Amino acid sequence: MSNTTNAAIVEISQTAGKFQSSIVLQYDNKYIDVKSILGLFTTLMTSGDYNLHVHGPDAEEAKAAMSAVFAKHNLSVNIVSE
């Protein structure tokens, strides 16, 4: 795993940690709490399509911030509107 991937995982987790909302990454049939660095390490090693589920009092701000950090690291993510 490259240092670039490590930096992306740390930044994604730190960004998610700033919000009260629940932020869950869905990949295939796996659901990973984005605030968990270990979960991200095991999931983001695989390239693919990711869905991000955000629920909570600051969900709109969290969606915008998470979308920006994924884009910064050239990771494709679909923010699920529920």
TrEMBL record:
<dbReference type="Pfam" id="PF00381">
    <property type="entry name" value="PTS-HPr"/>
</dbReference>
<dbReference type="InterPro" id="IPR035895">
    <property type="entry name" value="HPr-like_sf"/>
</dbReference>
<feature type="domain" description="HPr">
    <location>
        <begin position="11"/>
        <end position="71"/>
    </location>
</feature>
<dbReference type="InterPro" id="IPR000032">
    <property type="entry name" value="HPr-like"/>
</dbReference>
<protein>
    <submittedName>
        <fullName>HPr family phosphocarrier protein</fullName>
    </submittedName>
</protein>
